[in-house]
Amino acid sequence: MLLSVLLLRLSHVRPDPVSSAPADDTFRRYDDALERDFRTSHHVDDYAAALGYSPRTLTRATLAATGTTAKQHLDARILLEAKRLLVHTDATAADVSRTLGFREPTDFAKFFRKRDGRTPLEFRAVARGRT
Question: Best label site of 15, 52, 103, 113, fewest CB within 10 Å?
Fold first, then answer.
């Protein structure tokens, strides 16, 4: 399980070549904003408005850079942080939910289960070897 978390993390590591391509710059700006704000903003529209792009432009740039949509990229970052917190802290699922900006713990549980196939606590048990 930790291997999957590491692989997800490494999938976000990319070389930082100097490029003048507008899509590269657009994605870098989005990714920087996402890293800064993913705990408080879970909507691509918010990032697009803050950066002065349309959601479609962010999605095109993200697809070109990562092969995933802007929303998938955002959700993957939220999921990665959720997994990190679940494995490396003793925070409750409700605490993790609040830390990641979900309004209700049930919203977090649905988000997590939809993307991972398990509840946050099931993931924690497997990741910590307590199955």
Answer: 15
List the one residue out of 89, 96, 66, 86 whose CA is nearest residue 126.
Answer: 86
- % helix, strand, coil for the chain, step of 5: 70, 0, 30
Please state, in angstroms and rounded to a whole number, the distance separating the CA atoms of residues 38 and 47.
Answer: 10
What's at 47, amino acid-wise? Y
Using CA atoms of 46, 52, 56, 58 in order, give the dihedral in degrees to the nearest 10. -80
Query: 78 and 42 in contact (C-beta within 8 Å)?
Result: yes
Query: Mean of the per-residue pLDDT values for the chain?
Result: 90
Q: Is the dihedral of CA 110, 112, 117, 122 positive or negative?
A: negative
pLDDT digits (tens, 9 = 90+) for 107-130: 999 999 999 999 999 999 999 997
Structural tokens at position 94: 């409700």
